[in-house]
């Protein structure tokens, strides 16, 4: 048997490229992560709003969770800055002069977020890096809620990107005090959460954030 030459490879052939995810466990340590978890659990009532897509639309078929956009986590941002250079090197992105944007997302029983990207040409084009930091009670009081990151699927003979439905994937566990970094262009989803008790304190808490390129309009307003 002889191997086929490249010219004999089907034009329908697709190759799949694993998307790089940087994951760090034990990120803030027991004391700091515990304090941040208590702050997350205390975010209740009017502070929590139904999560939106593109920051302005409700679509319960695509996303179901609650969000607290004014959640404060300065210790997390400081730790992200400490590992930024290593993450940049691994993911091939430069975030040296970026601005941070983040909020708290709370998933309880039946909540999910269908496959999506964090950036596009007409929405959030300044996002350069996504990070997700996880908090929950231990032992974990829920199941599910994995971060599913889809591999890139590229037709072998064209420059276009395959449909995300055709991709393979890897699931990442939402382990307490762990953080993941990946490029905002990666297709990803939050798998459905099962939380039988439905207690708010038993939820899957996550600080979702981005490092974004500075807004050119702001630089103009500031005279440079």
Automatic annotation (TrEMBL):
Cofactor(s) for this UniProt protein: L-ascorbate
Keyword list, A-Z: Dioxygenase, Iron, Metal-binding, Oxidoreductase, Vitamin C
One of the Pfam families matching this protein, by short name: 2OG-FeII_Oxy_3
UniProt-listed InterPro entries: HIF_prolyl_hydroxylases (IPR051559), Oxoglu/Fe-dep_dioxygenase_dom (IPR005123), Pro_4_hyd_alph (IPR006620), Pro_4_hyd_alph_FE2OG_OXY (IPR044862)
GO MF, any single term: oxidoreductase activity, acting on paired donors, with incorporation or reduction of molecular oxygen
Full protein name: Uncharacterized protein
Biological source species: Streptomyces lavendulae subsp. lavendulae
